[in-house]
Amino acid sequence: MTTSAQQLADRYAALWTEPDADQRREAIERLWTEDGVHLVHPPEGIREEAARVGFPEPVLEARGYRELEFRVARAYQEFVAPGEFTFRARPDAVRLRDVVRFTWEMVPAGGGEAVGGGVEFVVLDADGRITADYQFPGL
Questions:
Q1: Model-level pTM greater than 0.85?
Q2: Whole-angstrom distance, CA of residue 28 vs CA of residue 25
Q3: Residue 95: count of CB within 10 angstroms of its CB
Q4: Of 21, 63, 115, 133, which is most buried with the most CB atoms under 10 A?
Q5: Contact criterion met (CB below 8 Å) for 138 and 42
Q6: pLDDT band, very low/low/confident/very high, at 3 (cuts 50, 70, 90)
Q7: Residue 139 DSSP label
């Protein structure tokens, strides 16, 4: 069964809100390839500091299941576990061959307007698993 672009986006967003570490690990293994990479365009403060010390285009990177698991767990612990926020995919996912683009939002857990978010571009392998995930935070 082929996963639609929106189904992939919804599964991706759900991963970041999963409270069970074992379930998160399994979801990562279903979504990404073993050597898949998550690349994040850093926030402006990090970019400015990196440029100041000679790194004009810094990138935050998590590669492979272990690093992806750590990255997702840290985001969960910081934003979701305290009960203040949750993540959701917007209903705008589109696919062009092996690339899916979608936006996501960080919203108050009790409902309301988004307080953050970003754009995701994911590159898929022939089995529909993510090989590269390019995240651009900031809606």
A1: yes
A2: 5
A3: 19
A4: 133
A5: no
A6: confident
A7: -
